[in-house]
Design brief:
This protein is mainly β and 384 residues long. The protein contains four helices and 28 strands. It has a domain at 347-384.
């Protein structure tokens, strides 16, 4: 979880907040208290952040990293400790997704290759659907609904042999809709509206009405109208289709947007607005974006993460700006956007057109058992 924010509007990426390791990519280590231009956004696909480091994936497969590298979390080896401006880690148009934890990152490729910290191959499985990172744990979801929970320390410290051949299965359900990880807690939403929670619960971030931690997924509620789930460091949010936004967990710095500072142990209604488009939980702050371009912020602003041009925290949602082109990096809509448009970008050259097409055929032939004659494949490929 990061003490900073990355957003885009008017085709530009802007950054603000904590920068003591150069994690804003501005070629210095000074904290920034209002949104400052970093780069153009037209070719930016994903931006993900861990603790004091950042990764930016471009649509052409260029993956840039910057910030703290003391634990090799940038994947650059141990010879470089701090990187203050974007540095190219690799170029690979077949990167499917990237995710960041506290001192590590994961790279998932279209082939099912899963790497940690740039070069350590954890596994190869074309059935991996998605990966999700908390501070010290991550989850691997497969197409058949198998969900595995892994200790990031054992992986990042090259103790992956501890898991080889026996990944710890957390649950199996082909109806898993979405997964969200906080620092030490997680939420799992199913298609039928069942919402499961587990992990640390010191601040009530599981919404169970108490402060006892839970080591296995437990049902919090069933509501088919849940639209999306979101986790901050130790706070959680549930957005419903009708615009109701429920919050719970740590509110010490106003990150829940509730004026009464303290811990909230049950889902509590913050607001109801059908215009809410997306919600983002930062380290100890929250951002709420509406369809009309209004961006509201609340919570910890000591490092300038809210972009209010000061370091004063706010405990109620406060309008930061209005711009119809605003996008918050780190939200699930990054992945959703890519899923809708990835074919367009993979079709830019012949090699990638064939690669994408073959992956499509393999995936669907495995599911259906359908065998396509080679001469038919050859004729189809000519038009890909």
């Amino acid at each position: 979880m990061a003490y900073n924010s990355f957003i885009s509007y008017d085709d530009k990426v802007f950054v603000t907040g904590g920068n003591n390791a150069g994690q804003l990519g501005l070629n210095h280590k000074k904290n920034i208290y209002n949104f400052t231009y970093l780069m153009d956004s037209s070719d930016v696909r994903l931006i993900k952040r861990g603790h004091r480091f950042t990764m930016i994936l471009k649509r052409n497969g260029n993956l840039f990293v910057f910030g703290d590298n003391f634990e090799n979390q940038l994947g650059l080896g141990n010879l470089i400790n701090i990187v203050e401006s974007p540095k190219l880690l690799m170029t690979d148009p077949n990167i499917k997704s990237i995710e960041c934890g506290y001192f590590y990152h994961l790279i998932l490729k279209m082939s099912g290759e899963l790497f940690i910290n740039g070069s350590t191959l954890l596994m190869i499985d074309p059935e991996i659907k998605s990966v999700h990172c908390g501070s010290y744990h991550f989850m691997i979801l497969k197409n058949n609904g198998e969900l595995f929970l892994c200790d990031s320390y054992k992986c990042a410290s090259k103790k992956w042999d501890h898991y080889k051949g026996k990944l710890p299965l957390l649950m199996k359900d082909p109806n898993i809709k979405s997964i969200c990880c906080g620092s030490h807690h997680s939420m799992i939403l199913k298609n039928n509206g069942e919402l499961f929670v587990f992990g640390a619960n010191y601040y009530g971030q599981l919404g169970l009405g108490h402060h006892k931690s839970v080591d296995k997924p437990i049902l919090l509620m069933t509501d088919p109208d849940i639209k999306s789930i979101h986790c901050g460091n130790d706070h959680s949010m549930i957005l419903k289709n009708n615009g109701e936004l429920f919050v719970f967990g740590n509110n010490k710095l106003g990150q829940l947007g509730l004026s009464n500072i303290g811990h909230i142990t049950i889902p509590t209604l913050l607001m109801k607005d059908s215009k809410i488009k997306s919600v983002y939980g930062g380290y100890e702050f929250t951002k709420i974006l509406k369809n009309n371009g209004e961006l509201f912020v609340c919570g910890d602003n000591n490092y300038g993460a809210l972009g209010l041009d000061n370091n004063v925290s706010v405990n109620i949602p406060t309008l930061l700006m209005t711009n119809s082109t605003i996008k918050i990096y780190g939200c699930d809509d990054e992945i959703m956007e890519w899923s809708h448009i990835h074919h367009k970008f993979y079709s830019l050259d012949f090699k990638n057109r064939i690669y994408t097409f073959v992956l499509f055929l393999k995936r669907n032939q495995m599911k259906t058992g359908l065998k396509i004659p080679k001469f038919v494949l050859f004729e189809i490929i000519k038009f890909v």
